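Dear support,

I submitted the protein below through the web form. The confirmation email said the job was done, but the results page showed an empty box. After a refresh the structure appeared. I'm attaching both so you can tell me whether what I see now is the final result or a partial one.
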Amino acid sequence: MDKKVLRSNVHKELMTFYSEFNFDFIKKMATFKRGEVEVFWGVAAKRLEHIFFTPDLIINNIEITNVLDKLFPDRVNTTFVKVQCRDLAREFNCYDYDHYASENDIDLGAYYSVDESTDLKKIVTDHSDYMHKVGFPFFEQMSTISGISEFINKRITDVEIDEFDSPEYQKQLDKFFDRREVLSGVISAYLSKHTELEKLMERYRRKYTGNDYIMGDLEKVVTFLTENEVS
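What the results page shows now:
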């Protein structure tokens, strides 16, 4: 079967599920969208007769992206993206998806393989189960500036400094944070008037000083927010 037809069949099955929750399907983006949240179902890989999907859960908070668009107009600015994975499920005390991890405890995320013989209803059932248990609660958590700040910044402030500095904890932070997560964490903290803003910023700088890829943008964001009295 033609891979475009396979992809279209997957999307049609998913439409039935997402229409119940008022998501619109944007065909050219392979995305189910409602307000500031999206679920991306583009083809991640192709092999012979198979195509593969690894769904992404995407947050586009308008207040955060407005700041990013002003400072970095040449980028596609997104607040937060997380693949359908075990680690996100555990954030919501759901351990039903531990099988997404490899024998080496690497979280590989959902990886749906589809060919012409695949029962698409089983894929939709697995994905919809994840959305009910994890995805929709995640979207609810990230529906406010304070919720976004809490989700991201608790990893920076909610541990003692000795634990924060430990190699094991730094590895955990490295798995979670890249530039997008840092900038969204900083912006959401300023916009929500984080109660430990000074501590938060000290620790961000403690971790990323020397990392020009992140620090240059972080300081640019802080300067903008400070000059515009967002704190």
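Response: this is the final, complete result; the empty box was a page-load delay. The CA atoms of residues 45 and 174 lie 26 Å apart.
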